[in-house]
């Protein structure tokens, strides 16, 4: 049978999809991206915020159309939405044949054996059987799952459960396996990467893990995403400073800069800690790139609170910044908080943040002109005028890009999927433009 997998949501979900693909391939299913010929369409859903839930519902309904217009016999829904709203999906979406939540993945062999009346027993999801779906030579490495932070707006603990680290030897085995297949860039991910190891080893072990990954043959770049500032230790900062394979890129979601708002969000950071740790990172790690995310319109956010947030953005000058309006999520503490902010105010505040960041980002990019960087070549633009590249300063999917014009010189030296050295010659608000560096 032909199976197609549609992945929605974050990179943690992408890793689940890659394991699902590997699972079906091991059972001799044919993996396809052609929805028209797929006998089975599996939608791996996100259920994090309202917009993600709506996207998942729309995608499921779109895929159901292939039961009429294509070859689809079975529509399977998995993932976070499947965990939170399994009974609702079964009740209100009769087009769906099977729903498997993230909490049911350990029993997937039993579930599928019963559903297909075929023997899937003793065949589990495996990190080492993954079919990598990201741009070669990139792979995401999920070092833990779940979260213990219990931020008042966040549904992740309800979906993914408590924080659970993977054993270090299993992670290193996975990286070694992927490196032997030609993967060179490894993005380290989880809901809380900096907490890695605390639950199973009794201490924070991220620095040690990164050091050991860097010693694996074939590993060229290591990038760490989703770090919490209060858990960034001096040992971890030293590892960033001294490890040449570790991208000097700090993805640190702070969400706000007003102490009252941080407390109401149940964040462990406060304004002073945020400022002090950012100063420490920039002082000790030359060339450090800082990325953060913020929430606007959290319940009780006054104009004064928001002004403090804006002032902090001006002062801290993050190289990269994402922001979102507060989304009311069922069963979270913030869902029923008083002083909910009207949507039009949330949206206006979001626009103000992006307007501020646009100028900060442009100024940051301007400072890169004339400098030389190593980049990974991801592909070419649709008009085939530029190579699309990333430097250590650019995380996949969320940041800008480095564009190298395709001409007689670059076409001889630049290979998609490989690294090359470039010199920055121009910039705009979010992207850099470069030429191939002469040898």
Oligomer: single chain
Q: Within the CATH hierarchy, at the fold level, what is the topology of the largest domain?
A: pyruvate-formate lyase- activating enzyme
In DSSP terms, counting alpha (H) and pi (I) runs of 4 or more, how many helices?
Answer: 16
Average pLDDT, rounded to a whole number, is 96
Instruction: Please give the share of residues in helix.
Output: 25-40%
Q: What does the overall shape look like?
A: globular
What does this structure look like?
This protein has 439 residues and is an alpha/beta fold. It has 3 domains: 2-127, Methylthiotransferase, N-terminal domain (Rossmann fold), CATH 3.40.50; 130-366, pyruvate-formate lyase- activating enzyme (Alpha-Beta Horseshoe); 372-436, Nucleic acid-binding proteins (OB fold (Dihydrolipoamide Acetyltransferase, E2P), Beta Barrel), CATH 2.40.50.140. 36% of the residues lie in helices and 21% in strands. 40% of the residues are buried. The model has no long low-confidence stretch (mean pLDDT 96).
